[in-house]
Amino acid sequence: MNGPAPLFGSAMRERPTNVPAEQALLGAILTNNKAFGRVEEILQPEHFYVPLHGAIFAAMRTLIWAGNVADPVTLRPRFENDPLLPIDMTAAKVFATLLGCMVGITNAADYAHAIRSAWFRRNLFDVCAETADLCCMPGDRPDSALMEMLESRITRIASGSVEIQPTVQIGDAIGQAIANARAAAERGDGLAGITWGYAALDRMTGGLHAGDLTLLGARPAMGKTALGLGIAVRSAAAGNSVLFWSGEMRAAQLGARAGAAWAGLSTLSVFTGRRYDIPPHADTSQREPLAEYQWRELEEGEHAAASLPLRIDHRSGITVAELRTQARAMKRSKQGLNLIVVDYVGLLSASTDSRSFNLTHKMTEISKDLKNLAGELEIPVLALAQLSRESAKREDKRPELTDLRDSGSLEQDAATVLFLHRDHYYLNKQLGDGNIPRNDRETDEAYSARCASLIQRTRDSKGKASVFIAKNRHGATGGCALQFQDMTTWFRDVDESENGPAWTITAPEF
């Protein structure tokens, strides 16, 4: 039940300020420049409410950083005719007033915190006031746009309110690394992060690292959604709480893929309830309904998945701010949050403020926001990405880092960049219906040899996939092999049985 509205609304409220703290701090620095060392990691010029105070702080900082003295004598000439000066004040009077407000340098840090707190509350006040105005005004802005604007601006304020973290001495940093290594060794899995769910990827990377943005790129039809879902499901089966965002598939479609993998069925069988493991009826061309044992296996998959700490968000076209809201709610819950999988980054929307910019600018913003989200929640974020057509034009179709062009700063922001590739897809297209085109001036012998080689390579590549690690801040680059089951669209490690379980639960139910 809503309570009564405030009697005067926000009409009697003033924007938060702390001008006395600004004056006392500036007076302390003018008197003794050592006071600046106590506040330089806390304050920026824009944190001051009075613009002139911010300009004086910036000028003092410039002088002190250059090794010079910042006092009324050195500063006054810079502000003699400054347009920020009040009409009835001279620079000499301003500095005299500030010196008169000086209390001492001991409390400089306390004044700085008070100034920064007022700045934070002032910005929050302005955003909330603007949002309140928009809520009360008729217009064509949908509710989602108002929510996005509020979330985006509050997030930016919050990121600016976090003070610079203290520096760490190199010996302490090595000590922390050793402690992390001992903890990883004691876990027995040899991982520095959380499992991918695939032993080959774990061996290559040491797991998905907390605070990192990891990028998995592929061309269409390579199976990036299938691998992303496999990673989410298998990592959840190992006891990690996972949020899977899908921008192009509904939750039921993803469930169909996971169910098909568990039951060993074609995904079409799960969508239609019909058998694709046997030919259709000769007379009617109709396919038989699934057998009872197949329905039971699907239901077993449902029960096996019911114990997984994996949540699917299938809202289309959301922003990173909206994804952050969902992720932070999970992080705060009893279940927690250990991994976010984004499928795929090109389907996320930029903030309202950036929608008028070009694609590269939008992708840079999204990339930065995903990287910040990983750091803020201290969990890995795995973002799937669709590569440009350049790799498909090359004779060797294997993706390269240059195929990430037009993707903003994804390559720079990601700690690890991996590419998924399946030769069979391209070889099978080349083979077509078996009528392989003949090259000009190609002899019968050369043509037959080329056809035989193509047919053999297509057969040999069936069911095989490669993941190439093109960038890895934590270790080596290189490739690893996976097997791909075309019927179930599911990836497995190469030493796994095709008939084995699609995932194995190794952690207690959440």
Automatic annotation (TrEMBL):
The keyword tRNA processing does not apply. One of its GO terms (molecular function) is hydrolase activity. One of its GO terms (biological process) is DNA replication, synthesis of primer. Residues 187-498 form the SF4 helicase domain. Its EC number is 5.6.2.3. Coiled coil: none annotated. Pfam families: DnaB, DnaB_C. This is DNA 5'-3' helicase. It catalyses: ATP + H2O = ADP + phosphate + H(+). Signal peptide: none annotated. Belongs to the helicase family. DnaB subfamily. The keyword Cytoplasm does not apply. It comes from the Bacteria. Keywords: ATP-binding, DNA replication, DNA-binding, Helicase, Hydrolase, Isomerase, Nucleotide-binding, Primosome. GO terms for cellular component: cytosol; primosome complex. It is an enzyme of class 5 (isomerase). InterPro entries: DNA_heli_DnaB-like_N_sf, DNA_helicase_DnaB-like_C, DNA_helicase_DnaB-like_N, DNA_helicase_N/primase_C, P-loop_NTPase.
